[in-house]
Amino acid sequence: MTSKGPKETLVTRLGFKSSSSPSKAEAEMEKVRKENAHLRRKIDELVKRHVKPPDSDKTKLLERILSLETLRERNNQQLLVREQELETMRQQLSARGGEVVVSLQAQLEQRRKEAEQRDALFHSLSQETGSLKNQLATVSARCQSLETQAVVG
Question: Distance between the two ends of the chain, CA-based, in angstroms?
Fold first, then answer.
């Protein structure tokens, strides 16, 4: 059985993933970008279909979705910066010993807790975005129903 190096053992014990694995935040950021582009295309399609000015509720929902998407993007950027800082700390941890190790471990734990809080906020924002998308779909369906009734009536 081969023994792990001290760095690998410490990384495993602290619950961090190997630096060779792709970043979860980068994947999430790419997903958010694609979703944002899709929402913008959807908004453009809706605007082109309706000659009338958009409903105020619909506009508010669209603005809220856009603001949440922007906030999520900003949080992902901050998460990437924090991950880079953590990687720097891990490198310092492997290069130094003694008191510095204890200090850096405490900092890592604090940063990990902050990252967990950001993840919880991110999850909450994702749920709210989903809810707003559902509301937007309902408002759009109602607008379309009213438009159909206006054409028929």
Answer: 80
Give the amino acid at 41. R
37-93: pLDDT as tens digits: 998 898 888 877 775 555 688 888 889 999 999 999 999 999 999 999 999 888 877
Select from 82, 86, 41, 65 the least CA-distant residue to 139: 65
DSSP 91-153: HHHHH--THHHHHHHHHHHHHHHHHHHHHHHHHHHHHHHHHHHHHHHHHHHHHHHHHHHHHH-
Asked whether the beta carbons of 86 and 108 are under 8 A apart, the reply is: yes
pTM as predicted: 0.33
At 136 the pLDDT is: 94
